[in-house]
Amino acid sequence: MLIGIDFGGTKVEGLMMHPDGTEVLRYRRSTPRENYAGSVNVIKDIVDHLEAETDMRAASVGVGIPGSVSPVTGLVRNGNTTWLNGTRLTEDLADVLGKPVKVANDGNCLALSEALDGAATGAKSVMAIILGTGVGGGLVIDGKMVGGANGIGAEIGHIPQPLGPDDPGNNDICFCGQAQCLETYLAGPAVMRQYARAAGTDINTPISVKDIHARSLEGETLAQEILDIHLDRMARAFGVLVNIIDPEVFVLGGGVSNMPHIARDLPERTKPHIFAAPDDAVTIKVVQAKHGDSSGVRGAARLHS
């Protein structure tokens, strides 16, 4: 049996499944924010629950997190769940669970899941993009995760946002301490702040991306303009990714990506920003994750397989 854990900013989800991908049981708990000991304990509680309820055991556990584990120090770093940063999460979980644990970036878990039995099945190169509370990425080539020499490969949320000539950008500071990160432009909170500023409302109590999208469908000009700016910024960012990696398939995950116009319109909006002649028959394939919000936890479950 395989057990995967998807550790997010608001929820922690566990899944027990067979190696063939057949799901057996899911269990979800709220994230104990700003509480490292509580976070370790909630993962243990989820694993214990899955095994007790199914009367089955897993030989190991895979955990997907925002950020990554340094191959040099073994410490978690670069996650927007900042209370995990600087901890020995892998070792601490192995101690309390009494079994091997592998921790990986949640974007890589999404990419692995979708490459093996999801929307990118059969593709040789798959880049996953998570658009949610933050912006994450993952890269799988020939069925294997590519984390890079330092374990920070595909951390696309923290590359500089390319801006168009008429786009003034913003001065928002990312949780990582830098300005101009993709995360401060493309993540859900960034869209919400952009709309609030344009509407002249309080950026500390903005309306949700879901509501902004609904307003755009109802014909509100401001909502449509904000989402078009968001799409333009995303297309410019994807142009950079195509020029560097040129993956066979981009797979989108996260709540922001649920707006259908993104996967539908992004390929054509990206083409002017890539290194290709106008008459080249360039294909940019962008798809929604087949397993939706479940892709992260399914990929985590496969980390040991």
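(ticket continues) Second input and output from the same batch:
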Amino acid sequence: MKNKFPKKNYKNISSYYDDYILSLNQSLDIVNRENLEKITNLIDKSIRLNSNIFICGNGGSSSVSNHFLCDFQKGLLIDRKLKLKTYSLTSNTDLLTAIANDISYEDIFSLQIESLAKINDLLIVFSVSGNSKNILKACKIAKRKKMKVISFVGFQNSKVKKLSDFCLELNNYNFGVSEDIFQVLMHSISQYLRQKKYNNNKIYAKYF
């Protein structure tokens, strides 16, 4: 059953908030833990192999992409002394607008991947619908270049799923709720990878 919210009009923010949190928790509860484990292991492997990790998304998912870069670059670099190669394909507005204006919006991510990526690099996409043309084209180019692809998607049975090595679907059709969960997943993965370095009597002293 699709998790769609809201389904009615609300008279006050309190009741809206209650149902918003309910929708959020329902989707968090059904997150496929096996897929999450495989996704995290692939990200960890890519970091250890010093592969390039590219991240992208549209709108709010673009912000998640930039936030992902921030958390991984700062947190893991400080704690694990790793030479991270993480790149948000949404961060350079000059380049994005030039590609969109001179070529097409559909090419804003794929053109960067075509230029920068190599075999065994990793592409991570955040997309609520999983059907955005620029996301799909980025994944197609990534597969052609023999990269790995991870997708975090709100809707079920999206087109991007077929182009992904691992796809984590939320079955949630509210953009705000889905993007909230993207942030939760991103924070969970980055913090998990950080804490692996410490034994129990050291973790309490760290800020996550």
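Agent notes: Residues 60-80 form the longest helix (21 residues). The longest strand covers residues 122-127. Closing as not reproducible unless the customer responds.
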